[in-house]
Amino acid sequence: xxxxxxxxxxxxxxxxxxxxxxxxxxxxxxxxxxxxxxxxxxxxxxxxxxxxxxxxxxxxxxxxxxxxxxxxxxxxxxxxxxxxxxxxxxxxxxxxxxxxxxxxxxxxxxxxxxxxxxxxxxxxxxxxxxxxxxxxxxxxxxxxxxxxxxxxxxxxxxxxxxxxxxxxxxxxxxxxxxxxxxxxxxxxxxxxxxxxxxxxxxxxxxxxxxxxxxxxxxxxxxxxxxxxxxxxxxx
Amino acid sequence: xxxxxxxxxxxxxxxxxxxxxxxxxxxxxxxxxxxxxxxxxxxxxxxxxxxxxxxxxxxxxxxxxxxxxxxxxxxxxxxxxxxxxxxxxxxxxxxxxxxxxxxxxxxxxxxxxxxxxxxxxxxxxxxxxxxxxxxxxxxxxxxxxxxxxxxxxxxxxxxxxxxxxxxxxxxxxxxxxxxxxxxxxxxxxxxxxxxxxxxxxxxxxxxxxxxxxxxxxxxxxxxxxxxxxxxxxxxxxxxxxxxxxxxxxxxxxxxxxxxxxxxxxxxxxxxxxxxxxxxxxxxxxxxxxxxxxxxxxxxx
Lengths: 235, 300
Fold this sequence. Notes:
heterodimer; A: alpha/beta; Rossmann fold; 2 domains; four-stranded antiparallel sheet; 10 strands; 31% helix; B: Alpha-Beta Plaits; 10 helices; elongated
């Protein structure tokens, strides 16, 4: 079964500006895909299309069987509940503790107290954050917040896991720790899509690499490395 | 909705209020001040209306009988009038009592007028009180029908004062409704604006909830409960302030011992007042959240 099926996808903001242009991409169940490319290449927009935050889309987009362009707003929560998303800014709820943040993803699907009590510590344990479960997000470091965001995304055991820059602003050791968690998630059969700038983790994991530039796919390598040609921008 | 989910949403509302301490205090304070002004003005206007509306009912129609009327004829007339619709009381002021009072006054004032008068020249008098002040004039017209009431000599009514007083009462009532509605609208705007600020401060939180897959209902419910709570607590505090101030003011007015202050009507039932204020506050609070959050929930 195809997890993601994109055909001729374009995200157009105005006549002169499009974030994605005629993108065609297929991702099978259980795959691990890195989306790489320079800033503004369209990686984050691509992920936003997948969880339907980006709505100005043209073309065919199917995610886990959901037809995104024709989707009724009422069905959007169903789509989002069946996937786990780690946002670029973590997106942790500031007034909730670490435990409550992770449990929230279970609450929204109507999980019972017993299920929450068993699954939440499991997810926190997987990212090594059990000891900080009573802390609030503003009491955590960037790396810790990132881990909590990952725990929240995987607590539902989603079939699709999406992460936007999960290692941004993190030191190399912490980044490798996060990469290892992502690999663990993938090893359970979950499809993982990660948009990143982090050359280290892409090269270390050696997974499928889809490279973007100017809103187009410029490379799709099954066991790729982060070696796209980047010209430094001169201002 | 499952019981566990419902319990969680109530718990969410409670935690949000507790954890957004400063915002909650700001919202409750705004509701308290606004509702105290609304409740205070409405309460005062109602009390003024109450006092004004009791004044016309104190008016009495004085019916003087012919001196030739016998006591039996007077009593029969009293009986007839008592049975007429709209009549509250008919009391007889006998010519003997009137004459005795006059003689006493004459003595005290040393005018010595009654001494030279042979016998009692005064007539019996019937004092009629009507249930509704607006029935006073039609009643007077009816009593002036000499064919129906041959023993009535004169019917006295202070029509001009009564009309002026009734017009004033009507004006107070209408003014009260207009001012009340204006203040209610203003209060609703002020409270809604404050609540909008509390919701606006949490717009990012709302967006995160949406992105995690929470439905609009799931996000809205605890926030509406919060608005409900702000309205409820604010109105309760405001009711306490208004009732305390009203009691102090009533005691102050009573201390003057004027005819009005002595017969000050009973105020609004405190339970009804508190309940009314709370209902208004809760409606404004929860509806305020509903309106404020709509904008943020439109984006899916």
